[in-house]
Specification:
With 187 residues, this protein is an alpha+beta fold. The protein has two domains: 65 residues, no CATH class; 96 residues, Lipocalin. It has five helices and eight strands. The chain has an eight-stranded antiparallel barrel. A hairpin with a 2-residue loop joins strand 5 and strand 6. Helix 1 packs antiparallel against helix 2 and helix 1 packs across helix 4. The protein is globular and about 50 Å long.
Length: 187
């Protein structure tokens, strides 16, 4: 008996069906993909998971895939995050906010604290629950921040906190966690 298609294969199938304008089949495949994502990650498929999974060298390839998945109804952000109408920052806004800065944040789900430093060259490190992790390489792509670590790739969306009157607080959303953060140091 053959194995069922992986989430990676299903994601590409959805994108292909959208490109062929076969939206009914794409919707059916999205439903299967969401079941699989729930089993693997405890959440529906979202574009952050896709961005993590498909690190294309050519940004146009990544953009084409993400646009097709969005057209098929896959959300940009995890369903458990209420963005209150805030839109993810653009690539240029993310570069200006993160590269060459240290940020501190609090996990909105469990209250843990993180401190992250990202050089102007993208080299990053963080301290989380007393553990220092270094050697990350950050890239800004598709209105997200993606890091390569020894353990793999992680991509996040960054949004301005619409409830903050100072404009200095942001949300850092990845496929598993949600953080509120602000810049504490520029270098």
């Amino acid at each position: 008996m053959p194995k069922p298609p992986t989430a990676s294969i299903r994601s590409r199938k959805v994108a292909s069906l959208v490109q062929l304008d076969r939206m009914d089949q794409a919707s059916s495949t999205v439903a299967q993909l969401n079941i699989q994502a729930q089993e693997m990650h405890g959440m529906d498929a979202n574009l952050l998971l896709a961005l993590e999974t498909f690190p294309y060298k050519n940004p146009a390839d990544s953009s084409r895939l993400l646009n097709a998945l969005a057209k098929a109804g896959i959300r940009r952000l995890p369903a458990n995050f209420d963005n209150n109408g805030a839109e993810p920052l653009t690539d240029d806004e993310i570069r200006g906010l993160i590269l060459g800065h240290t940020v501190e944040g609090v996990n909105l789900l469990d209250g843990s604290v993180i401190r992250r430093t990202t050089g102007a060259d993208g080299v990053s490190s963080y301290v989380y629950k007393g553990e220092t992790v270094s050697g990350g390489m950050a890239t800004v792509e598709q209105n997200g921040l993606c890091d390569w670590w020894l353990t793999g790739r992680n991509c996040v969306a960054i949004l301005k906190d619409p409830a903050d009157p100072t404009g200095e607080h942001y949300f850092w959303i990845d496929s598993m966690d949600q953080w509120g953060f602000h810049v504490v140091e520029t270098f």
